[in-house]
Amino acid sequence: MMKKVYIFLLLGALAVFSGCTNESSPISRDYFKEAPISQLATNRETLDPPITISNIAVENYFRIGTNEQTFINVPNRIFVIGASQIDTVLDLNMGQAIIGAVKYEDSKEYPIKASNQNVYKNLSFVSRSQINIESLLTLQPDLIIGEESWYSKNKLGSTAYWNEKGIHTMVTPGTTHPMKVAEDETVEDQMEYILNLGRVFNQEQQAKYIVDATEGRIKEIAYARVGKKKPKVLILDLLSATVSYGSNKVAGDLVNRIGGEVPYTTAPISDELLMRENPDIVFVVTYDSDTELLDSLLKKPQFQVLNFVKYNRVYAIPLKYVYGPLSRTIDAAGYMANYMYPDEFNFEKEYDFHK
At a CB cut-off of 8 Å and minimum separation 6, what does 342 contact? Predict the structure, then answer.
């Protein structure tokens, strides 16, 4: 009986790792310690004193309250889900602790940052289809960093399940369908999450640097716009229904902070509501069919009288800039400002936190 159990577990482990790439490659860069993942697993840095973090409790897509966890050691077996999450962990100089990640991008034009590519390309990747409770248990993580939407019945279940097994979870706020969260989601949430990761990783100085630079850019744009007309902006995702990231979502809050005016809206909106709002600018979350999605708005006969159509002010925006942007918030602010105020700003595409 024991032999059968051993064979079953061995086959399970082989099935999981057959979907990984670069699984034995050490992750290295001049600002990272050079050490293979297998060696890092034995190097446990103690947090003295232990760090208690308040995060999100999630079960089957829905946020069910707060989740307080105490970290005694710096995590060194991290599994990461989400493009912005990967960039943020790498921006915090913790690439050497990532034992696995889900490799997926929401925009070919805006992939993982160039400043993180040398580390990113050597990570061990697991396909989206392989992520479930059984496969993740095989990897033996000590921390899961990921989006709210992955805590579903057929994927990760609940944060409580993992915490009860001694595996920490750090769920990124603002990373599930807008219709599934009633609470306000803000830029401040994103910054607090980065600071908490900094505390857990013993990278507080780097986390503060990221937050200070991000808040500095937001203030720079806001200061330049004082006393000027605020353009009305809508941020839309054209799913099976038109979904709006209103003023109570991260992207809406960010636009309002840099001198725009995003109205409060319900998550799903109708054409009639869009016409009543008559936005000056529309950002549309795009994937691989940018022109098609933008044209679907511009060509609607009923929209021809609206400001954003008359002045051709509809712009694509990658999902990572509206959906839990974390350390990409600084890039999102620059991207939005460049389109909202083209004669005033010309921010670089990506901010390098390793300079």
Answer: none
**Tokens standing for residue 173:** 């706020």
Question: Residues 64-107: pLDDT tens digits?
Answer: 999 999 999 999 999 999 999 999 999 999 999 999 999 776 56
Are 61 and 152 in contact by the 8 Å Cβ rule? The answer is yes
Strands 233-238 and 242-244: antiparallel
Best CATH choice for the domain 2-184 from the list 3.40.1280.10, 3.30.230.10, 3.40.605.10, 3.40.50.1980? 3.40.50.1980
C-alpha 89/C-alpha 196 separation (Å) is 12
Question: pLDDT digits over 23-67, tens only?
Answer: 333 333 333 333 333 334 446 799 999 999 999 999 988 889 999
Is-above-0.70 flag for pTM? Answer: yes
**Residue spans in the chain of domains classed CATH 3.40.50.1980:** 2-184, 213-340
